[in-house]
Amino acid sequence: MDKKLTLSLDKSIIESAKKYAKSNNISLSKLIESYLMTLTKRKRGSVEITPLVESLSGVITLDKDYDVKGVYADYLIEKYK
Hints:
Layout: H1 11-23, H2 28-41, H3 51-56, H4 68-79
């Protein structure tokens, strides 16, 4: 059952949200409903993996002895010399 809700938001936020909703072919009400549903369904400590991220997993393979932290540390040292 749908029910009305009145919100007070900054005018520029409203205009930006309307443009975003229009460019994505969704009503502003559905956009806000979807956002609030996402917020309220989240469980603390758990991370939901989106289909896009899941499709990308396994694309890159590294050697078992590849030192990710060491390579990143070397990158940072070089960057901030």
